[in-house]
Write a structure and sequence with these properties.
This protein is of the alpha/beta class. The protein has ten helices and seven strands. The mean pLDDT is 94. Bound molecules: S-adenosylmethionine.
């Protein structure tokens, strides 16, 4: 296993033990209207009853159990045993069925070809060095016509300083870079302390998805910024540097082959 991925497994386990952000399970309120939580973009079609759903890098007892509550047949993949323990715990408490798989998001050999109708992935591709390896595996396990809804950290957000200097947030990291990003600056909320992260360029985040067999149907940038907030807060920074992007993509066999035939690697 890549050393950074191994490091991130321990880092996320520790974040769970310390109850850090993004490690909280679904609440009673979430269970009152699970669909509103799992379909914030309004992209899901029809009933989820019996739909085969893969929650990728989505441990923590949130998305998996909410999809299960909607009648879906759910598999949740995560690298962190502590995150998956919460899926198991909440599923048992709510008498829901969820299959948990401990593996890295780009290594899914235990999952069959074309076995999922819907794949959802919360913000997590920044924790692996090779986003295309993830897309190739998702394309393999997706059924033809399956939806792939994924969230990503947008590159500029990872390039810029955590806190403002002078008039704004300085661009500190070059766009064309490789290797892990510098460690998280104490107090920054757009990154997770203790983890190792990688910047993925748009040509990989979006272009790579197309080259791996998906057609992009929509793209949204969740509005979390507030220019009136105090300088240096997550909300203030997000008003200048939107932190996330959510992509709706569909697995299409024919288009994928045509695109791969046209694509000339740099
Ligand atoms: C921001 S959390 C998302 C999950 C959480 N339920 C949420 O909605 O906030 C990121 C998740 O990615 C997982 N993760 C990090 N690296 C991974 C990898 N290489 N493969 C699979 N999961 C990974 C972490 O353990 C963590 O559960």
């Amino acid at each position: 296993m890549d050393p950074a991925i191994k490091h991130n497994r321990a880092a996320w386990d520790e974040r769970v033990r310390q109850r850090k952000p993004h490690t909280g399970p679904a609440t009673d309120k979430d269970f009152e209207n699970p669909r509103a939580v799992v379909d914030q973009c309004g992209w899901l079609e029809g009933s989820l009853e019996g739909k085969r759903v893969l929650c990728l890098a989505a441990g923590g007892g949130k998305q998996s159990v909410l999809f299960a509550a909607l009648g879906a047949v759910v598999t949740v993949v995560d690298i962190s045993p502590e995150m998956l323990a919460m899926d198991k715990r909440v599923a048992a408490e709510r008498k829901l069925k969820v299959q948990t798989v401990e593996t890295s998001m780009e290594a899914l050999p235990m999952l069959g070809d074309g076995t999922f109708d819907l794949i959802i992935q919360p913000v997590s591709t920044s924790y692996v060095p090779d986003v295309l390896a993830v897309y190739r595996e998702v394309a393999r396990v997706a059924a033809s016509g399956a939806l792939y809804i994924s969230q990503h950290k947008q590159p500029a957000c990872l390039q810029a300083e955590s806190f403002p200097a002078g008039k704004g947030y300085m661009m500190a990291e070059p766009y064309q870079r490789s290797g892990p990003l510098p460690p998280v600056v104490e107090g920054s909320r757009h990154r997770e302390a203790g983890t190792i992260e990688f910047l993925h360029r748009w040509e990989d985040l979006v272009g790579g998805m197309c080259r791996c067999g998906f057609v992009i149907e929509d793209l949204l940038e969740p509005r979390v910024g507030n220019v009136q907030a105090g300088p240096g807060t997550f909300e203030h920074r997000s008003a200048f540097l939107p932190p996330f992007v959510t992509i709706k993509a569909r697995r299409k066999e024919k288009e994928a082959k045509a695109r791969l035939a046209l694509w000339v690697p740099a």
